[in-house]
Specification:
The chain is an alpha/beta fold. About 50% of the residues lie in helices and about 15% in strands.
Length: about 800
């Protein structure tokens, strides 16, 4: 089961053109992805990653990347531990090969990494369903871990305790070695032998311990010669008195070697017996590490998960039903600090785009960006574009880009392009994406333009989603008059004579040749002569385009100015709200102080009354006179408390006002909600919140936000300050348009969002701007999920780049 999941998730391939993949530089992207992988098995998967055209498979891949990003944001240091690709060693063990100790340690560390990750996903599997499915292939526990730990130390040395026989051999080996060293040391210290030695040291030759004897004393010490120095002045000899000890030591060394070999062979046999589980764990670790690599690569690119759309059925209008909407898209291989993001979004009626503009203006980059981002998404990679970008899952992506002149094949640039296009036209379907750079270039302009229109028409008839870059003005006209096709242009700054790299959809590019020539200093007479040679229709078209671009620039400037004014108004609104809140707090403090002062005065009068009572009692006079005074004081106290409470109630202030009144709330009580200036009945109640029925709506509010309504007056006869408002499109006290919940927990943020939407809907507001920040994306996703189920919400969308981008969600409310 696991192997089936793995193959489906990472090796599903389809009719993808290998040449186009290289042209769009997907292998370079995958090479960067592999740089974020932790070990060779996952690097191998990264390099072998292929796109898939199964929309559900793509969504599962992307979800796995999103889960990995979430997990790594929660546990930044999480890795696959010390895992190694031990598949070749394990396979060799199944054939009886004895593994080296370092290979066995790699097996152990890999199994430990597998066990650690498996335990984590067993605990948190519900939060990471895709990764948990991959983790099913991880070995939960293995007796091999303990077996290797009991046999090898951290340096790979076989422990004495690995077997009783090895323990005995090594004990005898130490004893024998000590005896031999002692015997040789005594020889070095012997007064007869010491003068004959080159130096008083013990060394080894051919595995036997020897001493260095000067050559002129050869035969003076009974010994076996094993070696001599290069000069012949020193002989390395083994005295006959230590031959037996050396023999015994050597025997024990060979016995140790054989026992170690036997132990490693036995351990290797256990590895071979567990080969299937170990290999499965390595492959699962590789899959999970690939997901981690995708997550790290996405963070490095500041990428987001695209929304993958299936093809729609639209046979009636010739549209293939594809979706291509990229916002603030950046090419993944360009420097994110300098690259200019583009918006490449085709509307519901468009499936072909003709991009015109100057050389080096960004046409080719725009084409490559669309192509490579589609491939990345279908590989399960997040793309460097704003959240909310949408793509279809194309069954193939074809590209003909750049100068591919081939000297070896005697092909010109034109011939090379045509050869590629021939192959493309043979393989395309209505579910393909085709990007063509400089279509029809490299030959006679008239014939090239005709050929370009014919190729584009061929693709349109077959309902192929197509992006084309060209210099031919004829294609601008063709795009303008052909259903399903739109013009686009990359902009050029005539002042600086540099391209801006901004892509504008809906307007064809202008021919700036004469203007550029004039700016560079070409004689005006030459420019006027050239202008006369241009047809009047082309001149009028260029003038019209100039005017359209000028008006667009004016509109853009006005929009930016309006956006700045809106921000200033919002800042002023926030400042005024703070000031009002401070004033309200001050009023409450004054009222509280007033009540304290009154209570102090009443206590003072009571104390004076008690003093009088004591004095009258001592004087023996009746107390009836004092009772009348006491009654008046009690009435005065009640009037003071009632006056203070009524003033607080009339202030329409939440929070402490309820504490001052100290009236308990019950189900069925009528209460006021100052935050939305409305009145309702409590239908549900717990320790912190109440559910209030306001007309046809149910609103949840904190207890400290509720004020008991006055039941002694009917609604019609209540004072204006306590009369409930009718829920309509004209509620005077509307909440702010902006709700800032950055830094809140998901639970607190959703609670505050629900209250604000209730208030905004009752106030008849058209929209609310929710600021939640980007962060890990958990708060954003929770908010957008909640908005889908909210009956007050008609739609929502990410903020514009000037509004905070994906850190903001603009919520449009239904009309009540």
């Amino acid at each position: 089961m696991f192997h089936e999941i793995r193959r489906e998730s990472c090796y599903t391939a389809f009719g993808m053109d290998a040449k186009s993949i290289n042209t769009l530089e997907l292998p370079t992207v995958l090479n960067r992805l592999a740089g974020h992988a932790a070990f060779s098995a996952s690097k191998e998967l990264a390099h072998a990653l292929k796109p898939t055209d199964d929309v559900e498979d793509v969504r599962r891949r992307l979800a796995g990347t999103t889960e990995a990003r979430t997990l790594l944001s929660m546990v930044p240091g999480l890795t696959i531990g010390g895992a190694r690709d031990v598949r070749s060693a394990v396979t060799a063990a199944t054939r009886g090969v004895i593994l080296e100790s370092d290979q066995l340690l790699d097996v152990k560390s890999t199994l430990i990494a597998s066990r650690t990750l498996r335990r984590r996903f067993d605990k948190e599997g519900e939060s990471y369903p895709v990764l948990s499915t991959l983790a099913l292939g991880l070995e939960r526990s293995s007796p091999l871990i303990e077996a290797i730990t009991m046999t090898l130390d951290e340096r790979g040395e076989v422990l004495d305790s690995a077997s009783d026989k090895l323990a005995t051999i090594r004990h005898d080996l130490r004893v024998s070695h000590d005896r031999l060293m002692g015997k040789l040391q005594r020889l070095l210290s012997d007064s007869k032998v010491a003068p004959m030695l080159q130096e008083p040291i013990i060394t080894q030759r051919d595995g036997r311990f020897v001493i260095p004897l000067r050559a002129e004393f050869k035969g003076k010490v009974k010994s076996v010669i094993h070696d001599q120095s290069a000069s012949g002045a020193t002989l390395f000899v083994e005295p006959l008195t230590v031959v037996d000890l050396n023999n015994r030591l050597r025997e024990l060394q060979l016995a140790e070697r054989d026992e170690v070999r036997r132990i490693l062979a036995e351990l290797s046999g256990q590895v071979g017996g567990e080969s299937e589980n170990i290999i499965r764990s390595v492959e699962a670790l590789a899959e999970i590490d690939l997901a981690f690599a995708k997550a790290r690569y996405a963070e490095a690119m500041h990428a987001n998960e695209p929304i993958m759309k299936p093809f729609k059925t639209r046979a009636e209008d010739g549209h293939p039903g594809s979706t291509l909407r990229l916002f603030n898209a950046r090419h993944p291989l360009l420097d994110p600090e300098t690259v200019v993001p583009i918006d490449l979004a085709l509307d519901e009626d468009t499936f072909a785009l003709v991009i015109t503009g100057p050389n080096t203006g960004g046409k080719t980059v725009s084409l490559k960006t669309a192509g490579v981002l589609s491939l990345m998404a279908q590989c399960g990679l997040h793309i460097p574009a704003l959240s909310g970008s949408e793509l279809s899952t194309f069954d193939s992506v074809f590209a003909d880009i750049g100068d591919e002149q081939s000297i070896e094949q005697s092909l010109s640039t034109f011939s090379s392009h045509i050869s590629n296009i021939i192959d493309i036209l043979k393989g395309v379907t209505s579910r393909s994406l085709v990007v063509l750079d400089e279509l029809g270039a490299g030959t006679d302009p008239q014939e090239g333009a005709a050929l370009a229109r014919a190729i584009l028409g061929f693709l349109l008839e077959r309902r192929v989603t197509t992006l084309v870059a060209t210099h031919y003005p004829e294609l601008k006209v063709y795009a303008h008059g052909t259903p399903g096709v739109r013009n686009a242009s990359v902009e050029f700054d005539l002042e600086s004579l540099k391209p801006t790299y901004h892509l504008t959809i809906g307007l064809p590019g202008r021919s700036n040749a004469l203007a550029i020539a004039g700016r560079l200093g070409l004689d005006e007479e030459v420019i006027l002569r050239a202008r006369k040679m241009v047809s009047p229709e082309d001149l009028r078209a260029e003038s019209l385009l100039d005017e359209i671009h000028r008006q667009r620039d004016l509109i853009r400037a006005d929009r930016e100015e309006a956006e700045q004014a809106r921000k200033e108004v919002q800042a002023l609104e926030a400042k005024l709200a703070e000031r009002l809140e401070a004033i309200d707090d001050e009023r409450l403090e004054l009222l509280e102080q007033a009540r304290v002062d009154v209570e102090a005065e009443v206590d003072e009068v009571r104390e004076h009354l008690r003093s009088l009572r004591r004095r009258l009692t001592q004087a023996g006079k009746p107390l009836e006179e004092l009772k009348a005074i006491e009654t008046e004081i009690e009435e005065l106290e009640e009037q003071v408390v009632e006056s203070v409470s009524s003033q607080i109630t009339g202030l329409d202030l939440p929070g402490r006002a309820v504490d001052l009144i100290e009236e308990p709330l019950n189900v069925g009580d009528r209460v006021r909600l100052p935050t939305i200036d409305a009145e309702g009945v409590i239908t549900g109640l717990d320790q912190e919140q109440a559910e209030v029925q306001v007309g046809r709506l149910r609103v949840r509010a904190r207890l400290d936000e509720l004020i008991p309504a006055r039941d002694d007056l009917s609604i019609e006869h209540r004072p204006a300050e306590v009369r409930p408002q009718v829920v309509s499109r004209g509620v005077p006290q509307a909440p702010p348009l902006e709700l800032n919940i950055r830094g809140r927990t998901v639970e607190d943020g959703l609670e505050e969002l629900e209250r604000r939407l209730d208030a905004a809907y009752l106030a008849g507001m058209p929209f609310v701007r929710v600021i939640h920040g980007k962060g890990t994306g958990r708060l954003r996703e929770a908010i957008r999920q909640a908005l889908k189920d909210n009956p007050y919400v008609s739609s929502f969308e990410p903020g514009q780049p000037g509004e905070g981008g994906d850190g903001v969600t603009v919520v449009r409310l239904a009309i009540s």
